[in-house]
Design goal:
Length: 166
Amino acid sequence: MYTKRFYFNPVILSVITAAALLYGCNRSSQNSNSESPSESSENVKPATMKYIETFQAEVCEKIILEYYNKLSDEGDNIAPQKQATITDADTIKKITTLLHALPDQGDMMVKMGNVSVLKVTLIYNDQAVFFKYYENSVQTPATSFYAKPPREEKLLYEMLMAIVNS
């Protein structure tokens, strides 16, 4: 699970990758209008996307789950192996409740190997924030991990994986 060959800042890599993916998604969704692709692509503005600053997030409009078999797949802009979008208000409230139970800071740093990644993006009206699970460990807003994970971390992971696998 761990390697000492290299170190990267997963937050910076995630932000760059997520912004590129979101910008591409905005372009394709706007291109579906009656305008030609060349006309609409000039009017596209990238959405605000950043790593979550606190797990005390407000209830969002929808949640996008992206599962990658390997960390390197996400970094290489390879499409996720599994993907799901959650729009059900009750499910979003349950996820938000579990998220609120997580501390914003862990007590250890981890250098990742080529592990599986579950990217969770919370979509709001004017912005998107995301956080990630590496294997089954959530990276906190402080970019650290829990030495003794809270029970809610596992419950949230299992719930999200059940949705992405359905």
